[in-house]
Amino acid sequence: MMEIIINAQKKRVQQSLHNDAITKKKTQEEDQVKLAAIAISLNIRLRSADMPFSLQERAICYTRSLLSSTATNRPSPTILAGAIKKEFDLLYGPAWHCVVGKSFGSFVTHSPGGFVYYSVDSLCFLLFKTEVKLVTEPPAQLPLQRT
């Protein structure tokens, strides 16, 4: 009798997990469609991302607002990168990095959920977060080698 109850409980847990997974997948798909619609409306092309929907949305909307705020002269890539970095540091904690330009290569290590790469017209934007660890003691000194 006890075994039947345990098996029934296992089936309910498995069904609940399955339903949760389906709901999560549907939500992720809906978020992707919503983000794609926002990007299209802002004339932004999302190229690659490992970032929650809400942060990606903030990045592209903030970028568009920066570009639209100065209709006559587009801000320099350095000013754009600094503004985006400061915005993300303020909202989501320190250690965000931003690269903006027309032509650049990159190979970065980022924190999980902290990477997006997108473009607006001819400018590309790379925004990523790294982990910050406090240094509690000075690093050990390596012995000097004489050659």
Ordered list of secondary-structure elements with their pairings:
Layout: H1 2-41, E1 44-50, H2 53-69, H3 77-92, E2 96-101, E3 115-120, E4 123-129
Antiparallel strand pairs: 1-3, 2-4, 3-4
Helix pairs in contact: 1-2, 2-3
| Uncertain stretches | none
What is the strand content?
15-25%
Computed over alpha carbons, the radius of gyration is 23 Å
**Largest sheet descriptor:** 4 strands, antiparallel
Nearest-integer average pLDDT: 85
- The general outline is flat
- Mind telling me the CATH superfamily name? Protein Inhibitor Of Neuronal Nitric Oxide Synthase
Strand order of the largest sheet: 1-3-4-2
CATH class categorisation: Alpha Beta
Instruction: Figure out the total of helices.
Output: 3
Q: Give the number of DSSP strands.
A: 4
**How many structurally independent domains?**
1
Overview of this protein structure:
Its main location: cytoplasm. This is Dynein light chain. It is found in: Cytoplasm, Cytoskeleton. GO terms for molecular function: dynein intermediate chain binding. Strand 3 (115-120) and strand 4 form a beta hairpin. A four-stranded antiparallel beta sheet has the order 1-3-4-2. The protein contains three helices and four strands, in the order αβααβββ. 50% of the residues lie in helices and 18% in strands. The longest helix has 40 residues, at 2-41. It has a single domain (2-129), classed as 2-Layer Sandwich (Protein Inhibitor Of Neuronal Nitric Oxide Synthase), CATH 3.30.740. It is flat and about 75 Å long. The chain has 147 residues and is of the alpha+beta class. The protein has helices spanning 2-41, 53-69, 77-92; strands at 44-50, 96-101, 115-120, 123-129.
